[in-house]
């Protein structure tokens, strides 16, 4: 009987250890041996123009990432918004993903700074609060319904923090405050056009689609809220354990990413076609040229993760009520491999703003 009890305890302990590794708990601190290139890299992204670097990087014809990976198989998965991509990453079903900064902070917080590392930037800008034309002021948002892609996502936090700064509460009881509805971007477009929504804080191309195809107007361009008009919209993160186990694969991914972003900026006309092909494949239909042109004009594609903005983003998450308190973000950023790739390409390196050391 004593032997059986001991066995049950050991099984439970092993199960707990497995859960800890899956959710990025304490086991991430343990040294992980370099296992060489991975057999497969599972990469997440969103079918949005703010993820143009990802769409260009994974494009089969251009093959920027696949060429650098060599024998490592590239598998990709599309997501609507950050929280679902983070869930996949922390569960171990993804190795790396393009994602927004706030879900990145949430993952870092949830796992006590262990499970994820921010390894590159991808896009700045490209998010706006677009509303019905009759809404011309913040105060007129009272009693209105505004959409964001997903609870706790980057645009969701931006909207909630902005409302809080303007002394507007998020309606949870049917009162006269602002109701925030989290819904997939295609559903937001349809709901706005049918009059069920009053607006949305949305990434590109959805802000442009609402403006050009559904008659919305811009109430807030998020660039107006940040110094020099720059804020991270899309970054590239990796599971810490994967990065430790397969550093060569991470370096290859970043080399491909650098090549993709450089080409995206050097050949915007050709890049738009590649991005539109990717959107047609992963989102169901291509964009009108006017929408694509407007969306591109709102975004700066860059390797720089703008790490210095992350403390403010963490504060915004608290203001928005998404997290309870700010945390020390030191250790979140690791741009060592990115800077190696940038040096090899003859491009200026980027700064971790002190968030690379614990």
Automatic annotation (TrEMBL):
- PROSITE patterns named among the record's database cross-references: PROKAR_LIPOPROTEIN
Q: Which UniProt keywords apply?
A: Cell inner membrane, Cell membrane, Membrane, Signal, Transport
Question: Which family does the record assign?
Answer: Belongs to the bacterial solute-binding protein SsuA/TauA family.
* CDD domains membership: PBP2_NrtA_CpmA_like
Span of the signal peptide: 1-22
**What are this entry's molecular-function GO terms?**
ATPase-coupled transmembrane transporter activity
Cellular component terms per the entry's GO annotation: periplasmic space; plasma membrane
Stored NCBIfam families: SsuA_fam (TIGR01728)
Q: Where in the cell is it found?
A: Cell inner membrane; Periplasm
This protein is called NitT/TauT family transport system substrate-binding protein
